[in-house]
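wait is this the right file?? whatever heres the structure
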């Protein structure tokens, strides 16, 4: 099982819960997910019980959800960084352009 920071997971629990409900066709309720909030092992047990799958399959399903959440976070951070880089490049371009036109 992948190692997930419990505090980070709790901070993203609304996203995790929403994605889990969609992924499991709402076979697991928001209230059930709230009871296991932040506890990956309990979430695996819940998935195993509610979907009637093996522990290994439940672990894979939970890992897929958590990986998607982490990928989404990475994508958001990359987009924000790219935006800052573009803003900096545009500022530098304007400075160089001003210096060229003043000569």
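ok assuming it is, sequence goes like this
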């Amino acid at each position: 099982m992948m190692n997930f920071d419990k505090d980070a997971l709790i901070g993203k629990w609304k996203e995790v819960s929403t994605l889990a409900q969609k992924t499991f066709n709402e076979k697991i309720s928001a209230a059930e997910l709230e009871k296991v909030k932040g506890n990956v092992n309990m979430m695996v047990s819940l998935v195993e019980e509610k979907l009637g799958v093996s522990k290994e399959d439940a672990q894979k399903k939970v890992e897929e959800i958590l990986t998607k959440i982490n990928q989404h976070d990475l994508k958001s951070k990359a987009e924000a960084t790219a935006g800052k880089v573009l803003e900096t490049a545009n500022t530098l371009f304007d400075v160089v352009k001003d210096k060229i036109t003043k000569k």
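The two ends are 63 Å apart (CA to CA). so i think its the right one actually
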